[in-house]
Design goal:
By secondary structure, the chain is of the alpha/beta class. It is 36% helix and 24% strand. Helix 2 packs parallel to helix 9, helix 4 packs across helix 5 and helix 6 packs across helix 13. The relative contact order is 0.19.
Length: 431
């Protein structure tokens, strides 16, 4: 399942993208050490790390670089979990494994900005910090504890008072906020293009329109069927996110697909920017039907949301999101210049996972809407796995890969979750 045919071309990012990176069409059979499947952040990062280590690597992308979630996301760089606290991760995985995963996830935003800086990627990277305001006093208590737990792990995370949040957002509904100083924003498509260009410069072969339809064992190697050609590889790294096309099914059936809608408005005047984002910090609050906003380089507002009934929801969602921006931020109704949607992947336990599908055939997924930061780490973890590090020694937990039972029904679960979220927010705010 991709973002939807050509959906990545409707984004603000596509309209403001740098020149596309040089790629190839697969015109002959090929033999490489490692085949990486998927040209999003995860696959591109894995290919970059592998090529830099001198591995002969081919990246195979079914569509175009950035055609999946990596080209349609909102570009919030958030180094934590969407639905887990440090304490709950340690409770689930144990102290040693839990803390390894926490350090990996917590370092994700620093890694994105460091990569952008050191590789000179022109992707509007702004490490201004990420703000998570609390919509209730119970949420404020939860964030205070969460900030203390991240801070105890050495991360630059603090708790802001209600007055400080008002100064940062111009909104007086919040009870405090978590601030992670390592977070920020990027132009996601330009980041993906920059990763692709760097991976190519390091020696990776990058193919577009190269959908992998099947993967079979061939002696001690793997044989991939790709657009009428055959690619032989000693190791295979599957980075296809929630996709269910061709060989990607193996990974996709372990995730719940989540349809997310995005808009970008007309540019805002400077006085409004100074009121709602004086330090240009991206915001994502604690409501179950969460409210998010960020600015792009032209001071457009970008926000996102999910539909209860995701059928013919495109225009309805764009109108609803524009109205929500104006209600929450006390703005006149803004013109929507770009509206698009994409598919994010959730794992059932909301944690990232590795999967071993056979000897030397691994996959990784589980960015749970926080993929920009997480993929910077997951891509490297997958490169380590492909070059011989035992899976048990890696910071991301390994799951069975058998797939979610009744996967087709799981796809409907988010609609119920959105309906329930709106109801529970109303209750929490009324409390
Ligand atoms: C609308 C939206 C908004 C989001 N906003 C944010 C945000 O603000 N911050 C954040 O941190 N995260 C966000 N996310 C999540 C984030 O974008 C993802 O977690 C991340 O991009 C995943 O990267 P990836 O490389 O694993 O997958 P993708 O970018 O989806 O890449 C997978 C690639 O695999 C290719 N592929 C699929 N099947 C095959 C096949 N058979 N053969 C070859 N190639 C194949 C696809 O074409 C695709 O390009 C958002 C997601 C969406 C959809």
């Amino acid at each position: 399942m991709g973002a939807g045919a050509g959906e990545h071309r409707k984004t603000l990012w596509w309209s403001t993208a740098n020149r596309r990176p040089q790629t190839s069409a697969i015109e002959a059979d090929l033999s490489v050490e490692t085949a990486v499947i998927g040209g999003g952040f995860t696959g591109l990062t894995a290919a970059l790390h592998l090529a830099r280590r001198g591995v002969r690597v081919a990246l195979l992308e079914a569509d175009e670089i950035g055609a999946g979630a990596s080209g349609v996301n909102a570009g919030f760089v958030v180094p934590n979990f969407a639905k887990a606290d440090p304490a709950s991760v340690v409770a689930r995985l144990g102290k040693e494994r839990g803390e390894r995963l926490l350090m990996c996830v917590g370092s994700g935003a620093d890694r994105v900005f460091e990569t952008a800086r050191t590789l000179g990627l022109a992707c509007d990277a702004e490490q201004t910090g990420w703000l998570q305001p609390a919509h209730s006093s119970a949420a404020a208590d939860m964030l205070r504890a969460r900030a203390a737990a991240w801070s105890a792990l050495g991360r630059p995370v603090s708790f802001l008072s209600a007055d400080e949040v008002r100064a940062q957002t111009g909104m007086d509904r919040y009870h405090g906020a978590l601030l992670d100083a390592s977070g920020g924003t990027i132009h996601p498509l330009n980041y993906a293009y920059g990763l692709a260009r760097s991976a190519g410069d390091a020696g990776a072969l990058i193919f577009e329109n190269a959908r992998v339809d099947a993967i079979e064992r061939d002696g001690a190697r793997w044989r991939l069927r790709v657009a009428g050609r055959s690619v032989s590889a000693a190791t295979v790294v599957l980075c296809s996110n929630a996709s269910m096309t061709g060989a990607a099914r193996k990974l996709g059936r372990n995730t719940v697909p989540l349809r997310v809608y995005q808009i970008a408005t007309e540019p805002l005047p400077k006085d409004v920017v100074n009121r709602i984002a004086p330090d240009r910090r991206p915001v994502g609050d604690t409501r179950a039907n969460l409210f998010t906003y960020r600015l792009d380089r032209d001071d457009r507002l970008i926000t996102g949301g999910m539909a209860i009934i995701p059928i013919h929801a495109h225009e309805r969602m764009a109108r609803m999101m524009a109205k929500r921006l104006s209600d929450e931020l006390r703005l006149p109704l803004l013109r929507v210049d770009f509206a698009w949607r994409g598919v994010a992947a959730m794992t059932p336990d909301f944690l990232p996972h590795l999967y071993e599908f056979g000897p030397g055939f691994i996959g990784g997924v589980g960015c749970n809407g926080r993929g920009v930061a997480m993929t910077a780490m997951l891509g490297e973890v997958l490169a380590n796995a492909a070059t011989g590090t035992a899976l048990a020694d890696l910071p991301v937990p390994v799951a069975s890969g058998r797939g979610i039972p009744f996967h087709i029904l799981a796809a409907a679960a988010p609609s119920f979750a959105v309906a329930q979220a709106r109801w529970s927010d109303r209750r929490a705010e009324g409390a």
